[in-house]
Design goal:
Number of strands: 0
Shape: elongated
Number of helices: 3
Order of helices and strands: HHH
Structural class: mainly alpha
Number of domains: 1
Oligomer: single chain
Strand content: under 5%
Helix content: over 70%
Distance between the termini: 51 Å
Amino acid sequence: MTNTNNTGAEKVRWNLGLMYSGLDDPQIDADVAKLVELAKKFSVSHKGKLSDTLSKAISEYSEIEMLNSRIRVYLFLLQSINVAEPMVKAKIADIDRILSRELAEQLTFFNL
């Protein structure tokens, strides 16, 4: 038994080029490096000083989270349209490894 119901979304495609031009776009790696640097600067500026810097910390943290979301959402959507593509899986694993380690090390104090 096959489902012949059309939903209207059969020809809808995401334009991920609005975020990055492709998996090999050097801006992805540049944004990952920028995100790591922002997290390190955040830690230096605010760790142990939140009673004095909370307002600024919240503003800076939102910038970090927006960039983190841009990278991760792009990779998630790319994977959803290239489910079996090993290069996509490898890129996601590489970036997850970097960001999980760095962001946990630099931002856990704020998340807690």
